[in-house]
Amino acid sequence: MTRIAVVILNWNGRHYLQQYLPSVCNCSDMPETEIIVADNGSTDDSVQYIKEHFPSVRLIEFSENHGFAMGYCKALSEIDAAYYVLLNSDVEVTPGWLKPLHQVMEDNLGIGACMPKLLAHDQPGYFEYAGASGGYIDRFGYPFCRGRILSTLEQDEGQYDDFSEIFWASGACMFVRASAYRKAGGLDGEFFAHMEEIDLCWRMQRTGYTIAVVPQSKVFHVGGGTLPNNTPRKLYLNYRNNLFLLFKNLPVFQLLPVIPLRMLLDGMSAVAYLLNGSGSFFVAVIRAHLAFQRRIPLLIQMRRQLKGTIRTGKFLAIYPGSIVFDYFIRRRRVFSQLDWRFRNNPSN
Fold it and tell me: Global pTM?
């Protein structure tokens, strides 16, 4: 069995493989580490490029694009390892990046997944949107990070260099304990892409594991490598999957008030898009809600399957307020300005 399997899911990313796979091969020098590229039905020359230039890299080939979540589900089912590292093809790693992540997992058997500090590739002094220095959600399911709230990215000045428990680790670079992954049921293919890592981390916590950020390890992420930012397709997936996330995981006493209010907030966002002339974004939000409503019977089945693992009460890293309200009304634009007093009385 391989100790650490670094798994890159690729879809038409030959240019990213050419640019960043060398750093993965050169910097991932931990013992018993295997580099694997799972190709998600690429139509470019990605597969041929890997075969010609990286013969030592294990290649798993799929005949079609299964999306991020199901693509990884299929790939990881073929890999026997103690730890999986989910790594985007547009990530540049740094020397020694694996060692702090591995050491934390070895020393803390209760951690199910962890992540390094994510910095922006085009602005190395700033945190990167997809994870920064650890992910969180607020009571309505809106995600944010240490170093990134909504669209505001902070400059990295070492302010979040402490090892910390978080709510979710970024799928751009996630170090996962294989046994915890299997116990939680793995990634949910229904998500296709976006927020599937938050769902996985939530379910890991429900099975008793914690999630952490290890800033002593750092990587640089391009972002938007497979699906560009600010597109109707990405907006659709984000709104739909956020409702999936909440419906699957919230306890009933929180689910009933949160879902209607969240859908109302989404509706207000849709109207704002329309008034600003972004008709395609307005349609994307409506389509997301319709897709969510069609899948409610399936989501109910998922809730029943997960019922035995539900932990009621508040999770340590769920922000009790509204990050949108704090950002726009209270003008709290950086993580250090948020009110985390509830940490002093976390639920079990």
Answer: 0.94
